What we know:
single chain, alpha+beta, Fructose-1,6-Bisphosphatase, Chain A, domain 1, D-Maltodextrin-Binding Protein, domain 2, eight-stranded mixed sheet, five-stranded mixed sheet, 31% helix
Amino acid sequence: MSQELTLQQRLEALAGPDPLRRAVNEAVAALAQASIEISDLTCRGALAGITGQARGRNTDGDVQKDLDVRADDIIRAALGRLPIAVLASEEMADLDILNANAPISVAFDPLDGSSNINTNMSVGTIFSIMPTPSDASAAFTQPGSAQLAAGFVVYGPQTSLVLTLGQGVDIFTLDRDSREYKLTGSTVQIPPNATEFAINASNRRHWDLPVRAYIDECLMGADGMGGKDFNMRWIGSLVAEAFRILIRGGIFLYPGDARHGYEEGRLRLVYEAHPMAFIIEQAGGGATTGRQRVLDLVPRTLHQRVPLIMGSIKNVQRLEHMHTAPDVALETNAPLFGHRGLFRV
Ligand code: AHG
Ligand code: MN
Ligand code: MN
């Protein structure tokens, strides 16, 4: 019988008597329970009617898959029973104001990595918990640094819950026999130097110079100014990239680019970048737009997109330097790469 602490025991130990913390715990426990139900669906796939079929488009114009909608329903049902002021979801056009006087509000991406559903790749759920301000409708126009908690679940070979309450990062693994999350990693720290980058390289021709210069420097390997050979990964699920970075380091980039609609990248500030940035910083990493710390950003609109570059702190700082010191970027992006681009022709 494994002796790991359960999620409930860990939450109790971290919360103490503080009523706000206890409200956060109740929401985390409900989200964890909902994620077990979503995990049951993802691991049964087509046998549970999960086909990845499009069901329409959400307000952000993204194709809405069957599991996006079912995951959203499961999470809203789990949270609807709690004293929560405002719900915000990638799959809902507007805020859902439930009980304006309740102490906390929750934003979530019910199913991250939707394009991977029918290809049996890891997908996930991301959530952010904010204190409810006096005007509840302003719950998600606060800086990311106001978050009380953030987490994500990866529905992969293991179903893993990553959680921060502002006191470090814990990793819990779902014990399928007892159907409980058990603590399998605590005070997680991201290695400060990485030799692995994650970016959708097919978009290189659309990137700004600093991003192109940084990636080209990685690709020049030990011969280049970075002096190290790099590996590359791109899974197409933010949660899977983030989990890998927490375990072995790395830098993830979804920058803004020249494509129409991608000027601010693809990821949404309120329910993807803010929670991820909180977790990554709590694990000793960095999270930036290239020019600004993500946790300093105040959303103007609910589904606002933001460039997200996060991971090992030294790599993030190098990329930020390239944004603020264009001569470095120009130097790296020397004629050697001027016409040839990312891959040797
Ligand atoms: P979602 O499925 O919630 O829209 O999120 C998908 C995001 C993120 O998980 C991933 O990193 C990124 O989209 C992949 O984007 P591309 O398909 O443009 O590579
Ligand atoms: Mn997502
Ligand atoms: Mn999603």
